[in-house]
C-alpha cells in the first residue's frame, strides 16, 4: 500500500506539489487532492455497487465502508481529480450472422435481446457501433457493393444485398436508440480492384484461392489512379446510399486489418499506399462531397509506430485524419500514439474474438484489453460480434466468442460473461464522460467522472479468494471487499 500524509489545503484551489507518489503526465504534475479531518463513516447510500461472478450476475453489493481521510491514509489506489481523455462511447459490430441469430427468436425475445444491447438505460447501453461495407468473415457469404468489372464510375453500385440483413439490423437498433453513432469499414474492396482478384489473400479450406494465385506484393489494392479514385467514389456512394435509408454513418475507416494476409475478405496496404490514398484520393473527395463524415486511419492491426508516423507526418494526409483505429497488436503502441499525438482521437476497433469458449477466461481477457486500451488513451472501445448462434462459427469455419449466444434448437438465450464485462463498463460510462488519472499498485482498476459529477470505478478481482482493497477518492477512503473472480462497478457521489 501507499502511505499518504495529508496537509491542509484550500478547497477552492489546489496547488501543484510533489510527493513521493506524484507522477508526471507529459510535463504536467498530477494534482493530488488531500484533506484533513476526523474519521467518520459516510452514508453507504452514496455508493451504488454492482458485481458479477460466474454464478451471480449483476448483483447489488452493500458491504462498503466510506470514511473521511485522516492525517495518514493507507491505500491501494488513489483516484485523482485529473481528467484524462473524453469517452466517445462503446459498442459492437453489426454482422449478417448476428441478424440471423436474432431471427431464430420470436418477436418478444428478439426485442428483449435488442433492448439489452441498445436501450439507453438498460443492459449494455451501446452508443457507438461498427458496421461493415460489403462482406466480411461474419457475413453469410462474401460480396461487395459493386462486382462489375471496370465500373470506375460506379454506375452499378448497389446496397440491395444489405437490405436483407444489415440494414434491418441497424434500423432495429436505431429504433431503440436514435442517437447511436455509427462508423463503417470494408474488409475488402471489390475484387476487380485487387491484384489477387479474390476476396481472400491467403488460400484456405473455406475459399477457392489457389497457392499459385497468391500475390506476394505488399499492396493488394491496384495502385493506379483510376482504381484509387474509383474506391474513394465507392466509399462515398456507400455513405450516401445509407443516408437515403435513414442511416447516418458519421465516420469511416477505409480498410480492416491492412497488415493481415487472411483466408477471409481482406486487403493488404503499405503505409505509403495508405498515406497516398488518404492524401490524394479519399480525403479530397470526402472534403468536397461529405465534409461532415470523419476519416480515420485504421483499422491498424500492427505495432509499427514508424508506419503510423510515416502517414501522420505527411501534412496532406494528416489534415484529413480525425482519429486512429487500432486492434490486435495495436494495443502495444496505443499509449505511445496517445503521447505523441495527444489531440488525435483513438479507438479500439475490434475486441479480440477468442475461440467460441464463452467462458469466464474470455471475460477476464476482455477486461484486460479494456484496461489496456482505455488506460492507453482510447476514447472508444468496440466489441466484435454482439450476437451469434450455437458455437459462434463463421462462414469460413472459425468459432468465435460473442456477448450473447442463441441456441438454434432450444432458442435459449445465453448472456455470456463478456456481456457482463461490457455492461459493467458501458452501462455506467457514457459519451462525454472522462477517464480519471489513478495512482497505485493495482492495475485492475479504471476510474471515470461522469457528467453528473459521480465517480465510476470499474475493478476486477482475478484471484480465487476475497480481495480487500482500499481506495482513496475526494478526501474519502473506501474499504472494499471484492468477491473472488468478480467484476465490479461502483458509482460514487461524494
Index terms:
494 residues; alpha/beta; Immunoglobulin-like; TIM Barrel; 2 domains; 10-stranded mixed beta sheet; 8-stranded parallel beta sheet; 23% helix; 26% strand; globular; disordered N terminus
Would you mind describing this structure in some detail?
The structure is a single chain. It is built from ten helices and 25 strands. The longest helix has 20 residues, at 225-244. Mean pLDDT is 90; it is low at 1-42. The protein has 494 residues and is of the alpha/beta class. The protein has helices at 96-102, 107-118, 166-176, 225-244, 271-289, 305-312, 315-318, 334-340, 360-376, 417-426; strands at 2-5, 24-25, 28-29, 47-52, 59-60, 64-68, 72-75, 77-86, 89-93, 128-133, 181-186, 251-253, 294-300, 321-326, 345-348, 380-385, 387-389, 404-406, 413-415, 434-440, 445-449, 455-461, 467-473, 476-482, 486-492. Helix 9 (360-376) packs parallel to helix 10.
Quick one: biggest sheet? 10 strands, mixed
**Total tally of structural domains:** 2
Distance separating the two termini: 23 Å
Overall pLDDT metric: 90
CATH homology superfamily of the largest domain: Glycosidases
Structural class label:
alpha/beta
What portion of residues is helical?
Answer: 10-25%
Rounded Rg: 24 Å
- Quantity of strands, as a count: 25
Count of helix runs: 10
Poorly predicted parts:
1-42
Helix and strand layout, with pairings?
Layout: E1 2-5, E2 24-25, E3 28-29, E4 47-52, E5 59-60, E6 64-68, E7 72-75, E8 77-86, E9 89-93, H1 96-102, H2 107-118, E10 128-133, H3 166-176, E11 181-186, H4 225-244, E12 251-253, H5 271-289, E13 294-300, H6 305-312, H7 315-318, E14 321-326, H8 334-340, E15 345-348, H9 360-376, E16 380-385, E17 387-389, E18 404-406, E19 413-415, H10 417-426, E20 434-440, E21 445-449, E22 455-461, E23 467-473, E24 476-482, E25 486-492
Parallel strand pairs: 8-23, 9-16, 10-11, 11-12, 12-13, 13-14, 14-15, 15-16, 17-18
Antiparallel strand pairs: 1-7, 2-3, 4-5, 4-25, 6-24, 8-20, 18-19, 20-21, 21-22, 22-25, 23-24
Helix pairs in contact: 2-3, 4-5, 5-6, 9-10
Amino acid at each position: 500500500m501507499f502511505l499518504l500524509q495529508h496537509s491542509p489545503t484550500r478547497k477552492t484551489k489546489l496547488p501543484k506539489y510533489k510527493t513521493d507518489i506524484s507522477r508526471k503526465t507529459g510535463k504536467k504534475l498530477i494534482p493530488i487532492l488531500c484533506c484533513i479531518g476526523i474519521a467518520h463513516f459516510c452514508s453507504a447510500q452514496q455508493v451504488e455497487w454492482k458485481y458479477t461472478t460466474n454464478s451471480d450476475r449483476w448483483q447489488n453489493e452493500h458491504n462498503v465502508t466510506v470514511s473521511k481521510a485522516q492525517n495518514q491514509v493507507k491505500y491501494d489506489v488513489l483516484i485523482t481529480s485529473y481528467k484524462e481523455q473524453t469517452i466517445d462511447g462503446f459498442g459492437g459490430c453489426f454482422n449478417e450472422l448476428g441478424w440471423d441469430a436474432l431471427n431464430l427468436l420470436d418477436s418478444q425475445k428478439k426485442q428483449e435481446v435488442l433492448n439489452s444491447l441498445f436501450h439507453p438505460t438498460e443492459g449494455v447501453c451501446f452508443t457507438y457501433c461498427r458496421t461493415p461495407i460489403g462482406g466480411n468473415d461474419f457475413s453469410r457469404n462474401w460480396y461487395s457493393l459493386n462486382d462489375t468489372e471496370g465500373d470506375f464510375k460506379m454506375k452499378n453500385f448497389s446496397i440491395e444485398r444489405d437490405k436483407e440483413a444489415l440494414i434491418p439490423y441497424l434500423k432495429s437498433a436505431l429504433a431503440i436508440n436514435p442517437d447511436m453513432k455509427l462508423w463503417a469499414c470494408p474488409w475488402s474492396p471489390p475484387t476487380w480492384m485487387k491484384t489477387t482478384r479474390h476476396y481472400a489473400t491467403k488460400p484456405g479450406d473455406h475459399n477457392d484461392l489457389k497457392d499459385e494465385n497468391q500475390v506476394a506484393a505488399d499492396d493488394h489494392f491496384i495502385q493506379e489512379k483510376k482504381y484509387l479514385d474509383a474506391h474513394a467514389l465507392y466509399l462515398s456512394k456507400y455513405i450516401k446510399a445509407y443516408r437515403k435509408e435513414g442511416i447516418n454513418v458519421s465516420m469511416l475507416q477505409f480498410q480492416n486489418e491492412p497488415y493481415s494476409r487472411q483466408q477471409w475478405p481482406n486487403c493488404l496496404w503499405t503505409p505509403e499506399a495508405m498515406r497516398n490514398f488518404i492524401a490524394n484520393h479519399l480525403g479530397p473527395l470526402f472534403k468536397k462531397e461529405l465534409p461532415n463524415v470523419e476519416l480515420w486511419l485504421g483499422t491498424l492491426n500492427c505495432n509499427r509506430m514508424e508506419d503510423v508516423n510515416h502517414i501522420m507526418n505527411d501534412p496532406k494526409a494528416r489534415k484529413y485524419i480525425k482519429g486512429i483505429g487500432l486492434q490486435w497488436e495495436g494495443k502495444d503502441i496505443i499509449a505511445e500514439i496517445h503521447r505523441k499525438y495527444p489531440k488525435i482521437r483513438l479507438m479500439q476497433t475490434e475486441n479480440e474474438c477468442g475461440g467460441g469458449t464463452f467462458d469466464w477466461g474470455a471475460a477476464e481477457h476482455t477486461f484486460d484489453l479494456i484496461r489496456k486500451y482505455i488506460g492507453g488513451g482510447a476514447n472508444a472501445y468496440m466489441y466484435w460480434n454482439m450476437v451469434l448462434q450455437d458455437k459462434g462459427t463463421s462462414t469460413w469455419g472459425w468459432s468465435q466468442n460473442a456477448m450473447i449466444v442463441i441456441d438454434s434448437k432450444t432458442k435459449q438465450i445465453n448472456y455470456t460473461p463478456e456481456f457482463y464485462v461490457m455492461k459493467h463498463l458501458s452501462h455506467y460510462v457514457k459519451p462525454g464522460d472522462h477517464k480519471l488519472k489513478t495512482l497505485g499498485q493495482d492495475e485492475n482498476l479504471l476510474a471515470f467522472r461522469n457528467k453528473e459529477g459521480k465517480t465510476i470505478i470499474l475493478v476486477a478481482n482475478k484471484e480465487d479468494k476475497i480481495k480487500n482493497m482500499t481506495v482513496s477518492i475526494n478526501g474519502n477512503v473506501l474499504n472494499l471487499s471484492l468477491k473472488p473472480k468478480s467484476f465490479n462497478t461502483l458509482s460514487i457521489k461524494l
